[in-house]
Design a protein that fits this description.
By secondary structure, this protein is of the alpha/beta class. The protein is 34% helix and 22% strand. The two termini are 16 Å apart.
Length: 466
């Protein structure tokens, strides 16, 4: 029998942390996926996977299906990589029993490489913003993307790592460029130990030498592909998974400026890869959402509820120096519908964290906002009746100034809830909350194909997907 050829594109319908990693792990096992394509983001991703035997890994630059032997990771041309971080991640995977993780990695030669100089200036900029932080992960994503736009081929790419001359030349260029930017930024920075540590990468000559050595070592352990080799991968039969990073509500163009990422978090990059590589299999899009909303970092969050956050503590997400607090709130269908509208209709939904609802008497879902701010014309940003907002309008082409205005308006919005009451528990949580799940399907116009009652693949129930 001929092996089925299909591509499943997985995207997060929120601000990230919806459980993409655990869904990718589950689908890798269910579909025996051969290749998992990372189609956006970089080392800031944190996709948690827990195995039935208790092994746990937070996937950052490797695909989240790597616990399955033989599965490959393809880091696409839209991916940003940090070889130093990736070597560290490989060591943890090795401790988890995955001894050949690097050997199963393939990288498009056009993928951008984040240098220590870009990461340092990213962190220093965020420190200089003080209480006006953007919620950066501090991994240099935005700096690397901005440099690629400004300097073009002068920035470091995966295909440069094996060439001593090119690698050294580009590292020197990037250090000097970021050192000039640091000189302008320095007057705004406090005299703290963290500032001293981050700025030391520019003045310590050993940083560049050590970095070049590690990059050369890394290039000998992974496979770097040209465009023809990438096309050959897409020609193979079987299942390909496309694993997105972060969430659509953080998209660089359609998110809530300035609290966004320098990455296209919609399905657009995946679609581009599918088209430019002449992929002929069936393509399905799966939108992943939690049963409640979360946000790691600053920015508007209309349904945020500190009491809920205390009731549902996070196992794998915590306060950190850069994003700071991990925030929780009730299910926000207004924002989720906006995410769907931004990227287009989804074929299926995956609903995660149903087990977290167990013991809660109700499941509130925000179906509209009430604008509480100063009188203004809401029509250009919302579908509304008076001060009751039913939908966020999508601007095409996107306009960052308009998105910043939308951000300010959202800070003045409060949620309007429809509440569902739990029935006596009998079986998985998806059966307890069947009415609520049907309501989500109706609101988002797509069936729930996967429900998750826990962190492992065994905790998933799949219907509709073959």
């Amino acid at each position: 029998m001929q092996e089925k050829k299909q591509a499943l594109v997985i995207a997060d319908l929120g601000f990230g942390d919806a459980g993409k990693g655990t869904i990718v792990d589950f689908l890798t096992r269910r579909c025996s996926a051969q290749t998992i394509v990372r189609y956006n983001g970089g080392p800031q991703a944190a996709h948690n996977v827990v195995c039935a035997d208790g092994r746990h890994h937070t996937f950052s630059q490797f695909a989240s299906g790597m616990f399955l032997p033989g599965t490959r990771t393809l880091l696409s041309r839209f991916m940003l990589i940090n070889p130093l971080n990736m070597l560290k991640e490989a060591r943890h995977l090795n401790a988890c029993g995955i001894t050949d993780a690097l050997q199963r990695v393939q990288i498009d030669q056009r993928a951008l490489v984040i240098t220590p100089f870009q990461r340092a200036i990213n962190r220093l900029r965020e420190i200089a913003r003080a209480e006006q932080r953007h919620g950066s992960c501090g991994e240099g994503i935005g700096e690397c993307m901005a440099d690629a736009l400004q300097y073009g081929d002068a920035v470091l790419q995966a295909g440069d790592l094996a060439s001593d001359a090119t690698l050294t030349r580009k590292l020197h260029f990037m250090r000097d460029a970021k050192w000039s930017e640091f000189a302008e930024l320095e007057p705004l920075l406090p005299r703290t130990e963290i500032v001293r540590q981050e700025s030391a990468v520019f003045t310590d000559p050993g940083t560049l030498i050590a970095c070049a050595e590690v990059y050369r070592h890394f290039s000998t352990h992974v496979e770097v592909l040209d465009a023809a080799s990438v096309r050959a991968l897409f020609a193979q039969s079987g299942t390909m998974l496309f694993e997105g990073a972060q969430g659509i509500l953080l998209d660089e163009n359609y998110g809530f400026t300035p609290y966004t990422t320098w990455s296209t978090t919609t399905c657009a990059n995946a679609q581009t890869l599918i088209e430019e590589n002449n992929y002929t299999g069936k393509v399905s899009k799966i939108g992943v959402m939690r049963t409640y909303a979360t946000r790691h970092g600053a920015g508007p969050f209309p349904t945020e509820d500190a009491e809920l956050a205390a009731t549902l503590p996070e196992t794998h997400n915590a306060w950190n120096d850069w994003q700071r607090a991990f925030r929780s709130g009730h299910c926000d269908l207004v924002a989720t519908r906006y995410a769907r509208d931004v990227t287009g209709e989804f074929d299926y939904l995956a609903l995660t964290h149903l087990d977290r609802l167990v013991g809660l008497p109700t499941w509130p879902m925000c179906t509209a906002y009430r604008y509480q701010g100063a009188p203004t014309d809401l029509s250009s940003h919302f579908e509304h009746k008076g001060n009751d907002i039913h939908a966020l309008r999508v601007q095409r082409p996107p306009d960052l100034e308009r998105q910043a205005q939308l951000t300010q308006l959202l800070h003045s919005c409060t949620p309007i809830y429809q509440t569902f009451t739990a029935r006596p528990r009998s079986g998985p949580a998806s059966s307890v909350w069947a009415e609520a799940c049907s309501f989500i399907e109706e609101q988002l116009g797509a069936p729930i194909a996967i429900t998750s009652d826990g962190p492992t693949a065994a905790d998933k129930i799949c219907r509709l997907l073959s």
